[in-house]
Design goal:
single chain, alpha+beta, four-stranded antiparallel β-sheet, 55 strands, 18% helix, syntaxin binding
């Protein structure tokens, strides 16, 4: 026995897999498709030019939805949620600020993460200056930084230009949490000239970018004379940038007047009105404000409150102060975010619509027709007001009728190419889109041709809650509906009700499709020979009526059994069907006659449900016998005589500690390995050549000998137990060199193991995947189906579909590249073709100017930018490249140093102390000061602080140089004694061009002399640095005193 075990181990590889069978390089588990809304979604953003909707999740994923069914999934390295998400519109760049204050730059054309910028501080607001490569970052300290996105490399670079809190606000406040910047709004018609800053304290500052000073200061708790409250969000509510709406944490919504250029009087910055929407009575913080500009008096603002199901829409016009017209949309759950999907004004179609998308706390997306919202608000005061806008839940097309309860995924390697890639591309354009804005449905659009289950590459069969069977062509990475089956001839509708389907089986040899439901009803669909032909060779997308199924379905037979149907399996050698129920009943059915041959009830102390049935032929006491192997929910395994239903063995095979069983499969030793079993020279474990039974539970895997199972004798060939998360799905697949086992765990971990050794080959994880066991007498929310070659189809409720593949270099779908290309370069408009005048945030806003939002001065001109975009970018480049507040540049330098660790420039020049000039040169300094942008008052004279910071860096590098030179001097002295009398060696060195020992010593002395000079320079630098630091401190104190004096004078003048 010992020798036999030794030989068995010698035949195995060090990694645990045998010399034959599946190997690690034979598998490559990966996600090949994500379709739908990802779980954990909590942020929206929309690019109106490219028509791309981005949805970010709490675990670092970003889903992109484009035109013509295009979808793509981006997965960040950091599994952290998004704080802010913004497009650089029409440029194929998406910026994501995660919870770790890292700014991710995504290239949408390549669908790759180009750069990660680690911001030095807590980011509290983020805004892209559209049509330029710049964006603003506000932090918890009240400072605003500027980042530039390089066009070629997509690198995020922090500019020298900053807006410190001391400069924008005037003086620090007592409570530190009130200093944070909650909103940054470039002023419409002057985006490149002025930005509006809203602080948590309620303070509002209009900042002039070029002059680097505040034009307006207003707001704050003192201004509104109310209890202390904090601002939470803001948005413009006027196309000229003269009105801004601010939401607060106590439920207030205030409209403030903001001056245009040249208007700085106190009257122009007053609070205009307050929107009383009921949030304040419940102290509900305002979390989001969106404004939509429309022609006439239909402009409106959308409001979301924290943890509130109520989304309110208010008309904004000259009557808002006296009579407020509003609409309350009662969403099915608390709202997390919202986004406006604006149709292109140039797109001529009667189906053109604008949509309001609302994201719920659960991650579900709801859509409202924005035209109906506008119509209701405008006509609500009429005699016949229109109906309220209806809520539409965005969900998978599989769930249009009802949720999926069971699925079957079929892949055909030898399928016929009935449709070309062009045909499928056209179907993608004509199919009903996942999101309403993705494609405009056309009349008389082309539909899908379904030649047969074995004639297309991928077929997905789904069973639903209402008993419907749906068939989908999934050759492409989106489902094409081709067939709906629902028996209408059953007279026992009262007993059947809307029973959910719980089991599906398809046999291609006999063209049999069988289904079972919760009420024990089994339906046998006999299909016609393939290929299927119709009058026009196409089946409508809207589904098939009973008459429309006659070209596919030949006959339908019903059989009523006891209990909910768990599994259905057909015998390969006979026309029999084995059916197992959740009550422990095993039935054998004659397919032709639709009669029950026998029913056996198997009792169990723990759980009597049958999870799997397998037909097999086995030698019993020298006779070949047809057996039916049965696996139960309590992990018990036994065999029945398939002809009589009697148990062959005396005992059931079960583990000592049973767990809930999920999967059972008979492993045929003749087919386990892809190689010939009769090869000589290889020592094999005899047990692996015999048929065995694989059973997988939530916590363990066992492989038994089939012959021993039939006899009722427990013989474990291999086993593996798991102590971490539970297994939720198990399936086998056939690779090029053997059979493998795919395990999916409840936390998203996927393991690929070899058979029969159960050694781990590969392990990966599916981000965002979680599985919860269903409650008693309820169906699971997630269904997982597998194909023979390792593809897994996971459907999470009615929101998302995930397809993973195991075999490398396997093309699961066609048109993957084209249907994942959400960014269209052909549709991109270059910078020269974009105008920056007006509040052009979407194509819809180009319709006209907003002339009657509020009462305004009659002869008022709007300051509109007339420069070309190229000139604007060049001017901003000059402004942002210079330090407007050098005393505040410590944060910029520290941020650059932290990001230098991530990316080091190989061409960076080394620092040399010989390049330092310690003497003052006043004229060049004055010239440099003139080239910088205009700074704020007396603070412009502290530019020496930046030089002092550089000297500190030089000092650190000089210390390293000192240490190196000291070591070289010591080494030279030691070598001096060893090289006495070594003249011949020096001559040889000289002959071949090498330095002699004397020259080495001379070089050391030269280095030492140079070091002494550097140390003298360093001392002079230190003295100069100390002098400039003292000067900087005196300047800073003087500046603070000056600012305090100005503030005091302003308050005195306002009181007078």
């Amino acid at each position: 026995m010992f020798v036999k075990k030794l030989v068995e181990k010698a035949a195995k590889k060090p990694g645990g897999s045998s010399t034959e069978g599946l190997r690690a390089n034979d598998v490559e588990p990966r996600v090949v498709l994500h379709y739908g809304i990802p779980s954990g979604a909590h942020l929206f953003v929309y690019d109106p030019f490219q028509k791309i909707l981005a949805v970010s999740t709490k675990d670092g994923r970003i889903k992109l939805f484009g035109k013509d069914q295009a979808q793509a999934l981006l997965v960040s390295e950091e599994a952290s949620g998004s704080k802010f998400l913004e497009f650089v519109q029409n440029q194929g760049i998406l910026l994501n600020v995660n919870a770790k204050n890292q700014i991710e730059v995504w290239n949408l054309d390549k669908k790759l993460l180009s750069h990660v910028h680690a911001f030095n501080g807590e980011i509290t607001s983020f805004r892209v200056m559209q049509h330029t490569p710049y964006c603003y970052v506000g932090d918890s300290s009240g400072n605003v930084s500027v980042l530039k996105i390089e066009q070629d490399s997509n690198q995020a670079i922090q500019m020298d230009y900053t807006i410190p809190y001391l400069a924008s606000n005037g003086s620090p406040v007592e409570a530190s949490d009130d200093t944070s910047v909650v909103s940054i709004l470039p002023q419409p018609t002057a985006e490149s000239k002025r930005i509006l800053l809203v602080f948590s304290s309620g303070f509002i500052t209009l900042w002039d970018i070029k002059e680097s000073k505040p034009v307006l200061k207003t707001g704050g708790n003192v201004m509104v004379k109310q209890d202390s409250k904090k601002a939470t969000c803001a948005c413009w509510v006027c196309p000229s940038g003269s009105r801004v709406s601010v939401g607060y944490n106590n439920g207030d919504i205030l409209i403030w007047s903001i001056p245009s250029k040249g208007e700085c009087s106190p009257e122009s910055s007053a609070m205009v009105c307050k929107l009383n929407l009921g949030y304040k009575s419940e102290k509900t913080p305002i979390t989001s404000l969106k404004w939509v500009h429309a022609e006439g008096k239909a402009s409106r603002v959308y409001v979301i409150g924290s943890s509130s199901n109520l989304l309110q829409v208010v008309l904004l016009n000259e009557q808002t102060e006296t009579r407020m017209i509003k609409l309350g949309l009662h969403v099915s759950e608390p709202c997390a975010d919202m986004e406006m999907i604006i149709a292109d004004a140039n797109e001529q179609s009667k189906h053109k619509q604008d949509y309001l998308f609302v994201l719920g706390k659960s991650g579900r997306v709801y859509a409202y027709d924005d035209y109906m919202i506008e119509k209701y608000l405008v006509q609500s005061q009429s005699k016949s007001p229109p109906s309220l806008p209806k809520e539409t839940v965005i969900k998978l097309p599989f769930s249009d009728s009802s949720s999926i309860t069971v699925g079957k995924f079929l892949t055909n390697p030898s399928h016929l190419l009935n449709l070309s890639d062009d045909d499928y591309a056209q179907l993608a354009k004509d199919a009903v889109p996942f999101l309403p804005f993705q494609t405009v449905p056309k009349e008389n659009s082309r539909s899908a041709h379904f030649p047969g289950f074995t004639k297309v590459k991928n077929v997905y069969i789904t069973g639903h809650c209402d008993g419907t069977i749906s068939v989908w062509d999934m050759t492409c990475p989106f489902p094409i509906p081709v067939l709906f089956l629902k028996d209408q001839t059953d007279q026992d509708t009262s007993s059947r009700g809307n029973a959910a389907l719980t089991a599906l089986h398809y046999d291609s040899n006999t063209r049999l499709l069988a289904s079972g439901d919760q009420n024990g009803m089994v339906r046998l669909y006999r299909l016609k020979p393939e290929p299927y032909l119709t009058e026009n060779s196409f089946i409508p997308f809207q589904g098939s009526s009973k008459k429309g199924n006659n070209h596919i379905v030949q006959s339908v037979k019903n059989i009523k059994l006891t209990g909910s149907i768990n599994c259905i399996q057909k015998s390969h050698n006979s026309k029999h069907l084995a059916i197992g129920s959740d009550q422990g009943h095993v039935s054998l059915v004659d397919i032709e006659e639709a009669t029950v041959l026998y029913t056996k009830h198997i009792a169990s102390d723990i759980c009597s449900g049958i999870i799997s049935l397998q037909f097999e032929s086995c030698s019993v006491q020298g006779f070949e016998k047809n057996v039916l192997v049965v696996a139960m929910r309590d992990s018990s395994v036994f065999a029945l005589d398939s002809d009589t239903g009697n148990m062959i063995g005396t005992n059931m095979i079960k583990p000592k500690k049973p767990f809930k069983a999920l999967f059972m499969q008979i492993l045929d030793g003749k087919h386990e390995n892809g190689n010939d079993v009769s090869r000589e020279g290889i020592v094999e474990d005899i047990s692996t050549r015999q048929p065995s039974v694989l059973i997988c539970s939530e916590k363990a895997i066992y492989i038994y000998s089939l012959a021993q199972v039939v006899q009722g004798v427990k013989k474990v060939l291999h086993k593996k137990k798991f102590s971490s998360s539970s297994i939720c799905s198990a399936s086998t697949f056939h690779g090029a060199s053997g059979v493998g086992l795919t395990l999916v765990f409840s936390d998203g971990t996927v393991e690929i193991r070899s058979l029969p050794e159960l050694s781990l080959l590969k392990q990966t994880s599916i981000r965002g995947f979680t599985y919860s066991s269903p409650k008693p007498n309820s169906l699971p929310e997630m269904t997982i189906s597998s194909s023979w070659d390792g593809d897994l189809v996971m459907v999470n409720g009615d929101e998302e579909l995930i397809v993973s593949s195991v075999l490398p270099q396997k093309d699961t779908f066609r048109l993957v590249e084209s249907l994942s290309r959400v960014y269209k370069k052909d549709n991109a408009v270059c910078y020269e073709g974009i105008t920056t005048s007006g509040a052009v945030t979407s194509p819809k806003e180009k319709k006209g100017m907003f002339g009657s939002v509020f009462k305004s001065k009659p002869k008022r001109t709007v300051d509109t930018e007339t420069e070309s975009p190229k000139e604007i970018v060049e001017e901003l480049s000059k402004i942002f490249s210079s330090a407007n507040f050098p005393w505040n540049n410590n944060n910029v330098e520290s941020s650059r140093e932290s990001n230098a660790v991530m990316k080091v420039d190989e061409n960076e020049e080394e620092l040399d102390i010989d390049d330092i000039d310690i003497e003052d040169h006043h004229q060049p300094h004055q010239q440099q000061q003139q080239e910088q942008p205009k700074e704020q008052g007396i603070l412009s004279g502290i530019s020496k602080q930046k030089l002092a910071n550089k000297f500190t860096v030089f000092k650190g590098k000089l210390k390293q140089m000192t240490a190196k030179n000291d070591k070289s001097v010591v080494a030279t002295n030691e070598e001096k004694h060893e090289e006495k009398g070594g003249n011949s060696v020096d001559q040889i060195k000289k002959k071949y061009g090498f330095a002699s020992s004397d020259q080495d010593m001379g070089a050391a002395k030269l280095a030492q002399s140079k070091l002494q000079d550097n140390l003298k320079k360093l001392q002079a630098i230190s003295l100069k640095t100390t002098e400039m630091e003292d000067t900087a401190k005196s300047f800073s104190s003087t500046a603070k005193e000056l600012l305090s004096a100005v503030e005091f004078n302003n308050r005195q003048s306002s009181k007078s």
